[in-house]
Amino acid sequence: MGLFCSIVLSTPLWAAELTVATAAGYRKPLTEVFNAFTEATGIQIDSAFGNIKQIEAQARQNPDIQILIGDWFFIEPMKLAQEHVVIGQGKLVLVSPKDTPLSSLNDLLNDSVKKIAIAGRKNAIYGKAAIECFTEQGLLKDIEPKLLEVTTLPQVSTYVVTNEVDAGFVNLSEAQAHQDKLGPPIEMPQSCYRAIDLSAAPITGRSNTNEANAFLQFLTTEHARAILMRHGL
């Protein structure tokens, strides 16, 4: 706690700002973390949300972005950050419309399930995780023709909530954000997909600032962890 306080107090609160690019599937929990950080320190966070390709493009084009937050599996190959701090573990869940809830992964094989939304497997870790899970469970051949790949997890949720698809795969945080509009989420066994590490990655050459250091320190506090855990991370 002493280290965190010393970092915060050395920062000019009246003018301080930090720019962070973040994976869209974590918008709700991270917005809450950002607000808590600002309340604790006075440092404003300018956040940009998008899929992993979008935040990579933003980070390369905008030199003001100091920290990336997303899944380390996709951030590491960018070679923009030489280190990362794991701040949560993502959980893959199956969601369905509130009026036609599903009860298991095998329900996806039913003829009544015609469309299943996932975030694109090439650019979204939860789309990739869903494919891994289908493969591990021996279901990919039957499910593949039903798949609709979209850009981000919030789009998956929208398709499910509006009954444009019969099911979708998101993270637990996204499912909780729409729990009043969805059937009960079904958590997939973590043995069927590679572990998903939600990470904060300071960009090399840009992040050695009081603001960035204060934020990275804040992410290790009980306050930040409590927020993330409440959102299923």
Automatic annotation (TrEMBL):
<keyword id="KW-0732">Signal</keyword>
<dbReference type="Pfam" id="PF13531">
    <property type="entry name" value="SBP_bac_11"/>
</dbReference>
<dbReference type="GO" id="GO:0030973">
    <property type="term" value="F:molybdate ion binding"/>
</dbReference>
<protein>
    <submittedName>
        <fullName>Molybdate ABC transporter substrate-binding protein</fullName>
    </submittedName>
</protein>
<dbReference type="GO" id="GO:0046872">
    <property type="term" value="F:metal ion binding"/>
</dbReference>
<keyword id="KW-0479">Metal-binding</keyword>
<comment type="similarity">
    <text>Belongs to the bacterial solute-binding protein ModA family.</text>
</comment>
<dbReference type="InterPro" id="IPR050682">
    <property type="entry name" value="ModA/WtpA"/>
</dbReference>
<dbReference type="InterPro" id="IPR005950">
    <property type="entry name" value="ModA"/>
</dbReference>
<feature type="signal peptide">
    <location>
        <begin position="1"/>
        <end position="15"/>
    </location>
</feature>
<dbReference type="GO" id="GO:0015689">
    <property type="term" value="P:molybdate ion transport"/>
</dbReference>
